[in-house]
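Q: A reviewer asked whether we had any structural model of the full assembly, not just the individual parts. We don't, so I'm hoping you can provide one. Inputs are below.
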Amino acid sequence: MKSEFTPPIGTITQIKGQCISLIGNDIDTDRIIPARFLKCVNFDSLGESVFEDDRKTLKGSHPFDLKENKNASILIVNSNFGCGSSREHAPQALMRWGIKAIIGESFADIFYNNCIAIGIPCFTLPNKSIKEIQNNKDNKFLFLEIDLKNSLAKAKDLSFNLEIKESSRKMFLSGEWDATSALLMNNNLIENKFNQLPYIKFNIH
Amino acid sequence: MSQDTLFDKVWDLHKISKLPGGSDQIFIGLHLIHEVTSPQAFGALKDKNLKVKFPDRTVATVDHIVPTDNQSRPFKDNLAEQMIKTLENNCLEHKIRFFNIGSGNQGIVHVVAPELGLTQPGMTIACGDSHTSTHGAFGSIAFGIGTSQVRDVLATQTIAMNKLKVRQIWCENQLSNGVFAKDLILHVINTLGVKAGVGFAYEFAGPAINALSMEERMTVCNMSIEGGARCGYINPDEKTFNYMKNKLYSPKNQHWEKALTWWKSLKSDEDSIYDDVIKIDASKIEPTVTWGITPGQSIGINQQIPLVDELSHDDKLLAEEAYEYMSFKPGQSIKDIPVEVCFIGSCTNGRISDLRIAAKVLKGKKVSNNVKAFVVPGSEKVANEAKQEGLDQIFKDSGFQWREPGCSMCLAMNSDKLTGNQISASSSNRNFKGRQGSPSGRTLLMSPAMVAAAAINGKVSDVRELFSK
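A: Here is a predicted structure for the entire assembly that you could use as a starting point for your response.
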């Protein structure tokens, strides 16, 4: 666990940090944060329980327990990461542990949306590049500099062209990943839609 | 890009604007909330000094944390009590309709909204729960969202989202006897894989789908998300309209006729364009059981757990992880694997027709001595209907425990949990590691009829053999 947690705000253009690799396809949100930790009315203490059951099973050798990963902030994963439940508790737990960006082969849809909505950019890279990072013998101390403007990730001897949905990239650069204010701007359009939708009128009881 | 499908039509109808980033702003016609994913959203509203935009378009119930044995308040579990209280207060403060325990209408949110007629064709429906895809069975466009999006729907009745692609899953021929909607969707997920649906809405169509009842259609759409598709739907038809008629919140009198005319206009055009089309032969599907740690790792009841060499490179790693976690051997038959716990319930298979078919299997028979079996009706309505039909007695006589409605051991947020590495035969939707409450617990997903058969024999069984006796 890192010291004080401060949630991201405003524009996100650059993320620098140490990588932490988690190997495996289809890692679901029940594994990221088991359901018993969903018994809460805020997200504050989720960071310490991230991957709780996997970590217990591996008795200290889980990547999230290794000393050398203590300050890591860029998570490297394989395919369909975050599948399963829609619980935002999963990215919230990762974020509170210290994760600021995720690079993977692919992400489950709802998990991806949740990450964007709380300010964690998710990027994709082909399997070959992910493996290159995950197998890098210096992985322990692999530092990446992610540049969102150019969708680039650079390390000392490595450089990757990251993929990210254009809409997500723009939202991070403009700060509109926190969507509420952009949505509220269209208040008149919302009212009009409400008045036009056929079924609202059928359902007056 | 898809054109003129039901998905395109409903999406376009609800589109408010294109946001600067390029996502669409989509109006949400019906917003369903429950105690687990809403408290932080209400908290965020308070922080931002915002109100609920259209309180009438949000409906709440309590399902995930409710105990199914003793529901008297305060709950024994303090945290569960705190969560239901928070929901009660939030609904009261924001004037949101809330179906609480004892109201007669409480239950799993995806069971309750359809049975009350809240779920209707042509709507967009969102809920902070991935199984919101269930409501697509009515020809609505329904999908799960996270808590930040729950906040956005409360504040604006809209969310920012990119339009999904549309894949039609055409199910040819008919399911054979003893094969159910659950087997069909498990087979689809196995065929396409658990991530094939990422970025897609699934349109289920074809003769096998047309023949399904509304409740069976809900089972199919419910598990779209297990195939990676956050939205699954079926074009509405006469069965849909018949189901809707006279439900508590379905349109009444002159509104009914208008609604019907509109609903009938809602379907994918014959010449609509899909991003992808897949064909499945429903007649070839057997009762299906999962053997691994994802809902895609399933086989027919008479098949063997696959050998590593039979699998693609990508599936090999996960299979090896599954053999180890499940303590099963490649090549082993799924049939006759002993089970210790049998669970009938969940938003996938906790409806009245699910209870009826399980009761039909159990009638006059006893649950094996080695099995703990319990049934959790999907809602208070389901429970009452089952009692009127005497189903509760059939379950109890067979040795099943009859419980109160809730999500229960589908995700084990209440005290219904596996212990140690117990194996459960479960009518729920996820067999992830630790899903049913024990970090080493093992889940075999199957239809409710198959769970009942497993309960009687104490091991995975082919329910068709019980029917024929």
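A: Points you may want to mention in the reply: The mean pLDDT of chain A is 93. The first strand of chain A starts at residue 14 and ends at 21.
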